[in-house]
Here is the input.
Amino acid sequence: MPLEIERKFLLANDGWKSGVARRIHIRDGLIASNNGNKARVRIADADATITLKSRRRGPVRTEFEYAIPFCDALEILQTMCDGRILEKVRHVVPYAGLLWHVDVYEGILSGVVVAEVELQHAHQELDLPPWIGEEVTNDPSYRKLNMERQRIVDLHESQTAVQTTVN
Here is the structure.
């Protein structure tokens, strides 16, 4: 069974920028979400995938990822994701034998920056880079769907406040 074992962190500083080995532009679209299980389509530079993920149990969940034709991914993003597509630049940063992914979000999540690292097993010892801050692996407010929902609420509230002030 393919597993994703991932820990997620906030950043303490910009020290990661000097270690970037690769940048990948990513567009993610959520196709379906049901009780913590989800289906997603992703375009990462010129590669396209569809991914099925189980509910997270700590840092572990089941993940099935399959390559799909690029044109199919574009069509899925346009027709099945209700216009809610998250965009980010993933910065790959090697540190202490692991590849860290520092995701800098654009669009609706502009300003959000998180670091993730995939592990071989859930109890793997981890040498944290000096630019890593608070761990948010188990904080549901840092899941993409929840971050997006909160930004939509924030935008709606700020627009309502502006309309109230104008009237």
